[in-house]
Amino acid sequence: MKLMLTLLLSIGAMLSAPLSYAQQMTIAAASSLRPTLDRVVAAYKSEYPQHDIVIIYGASGRLTAQILNGAPFDFFMSADMDFPRRLADEGAAATEPQVYAKGRIALWSFNVDASAMTLQDLGAERIGRVAIAQPTVAPYGQRAREAMQAVGVWDDVEDKLVFGENISQVAQMAQSGAADVGIIALSLVRQPELAARGYTVIDAALHQPLEQGYVVTRRGADNAVAATFTQFLSTPAAQAVFRDNGFDVDD
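Above: the chain sequence. Below: its structure as tokens.
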């Protein structure tokens, strides 16, 4: 009898293990999504309370490299479409890249009134350091460079630039005074800790669109949470969270 009970418990444990795994997911997400994605996940969990989601934030390029090197991420939400396409091209994605929202960039400062500023003002002598995300790994940094080049101020500002590895670091640099002005994500500017200061949204026509995409990674191909979360991203509830936090979404 004791042997039979032990056998039944062992079988039960083996049957429940895959189900338990399927209730968990790890998302690698661009720093521009903090804390927006936390709120999207909270809305998701109100419908799927049994699902456990962990979010790892970082620069999209760094996260892409980690996924290609075997990092245990089931889902990737980038700040652009190029990095998800790279994962798909290299066989590291289980789905085709899809756009979930479009980002915007803005001028923000703790030291000066950024609401009265333009990109051309960044070249003025009164402005010292200008913080942007590292363009080689962070799409928001790429778009900041494109916008400055478009208005002809890049050459005047290049020597003033200080770089954050991701857009959250850029916001911290501007907040701390390590930079006089930061070009950061509108989604961060809209958060309470920054929203009290003035800001200027940069014309989207000055840079390539900040279409932000996601893929389910090869590791997450059979993950039930990844499948339901993919569907949730297109719901009115998720889109409302993105919109309220400064992203553009398709209606």
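The chain has two domains: 2-102+210-244, 105-201.
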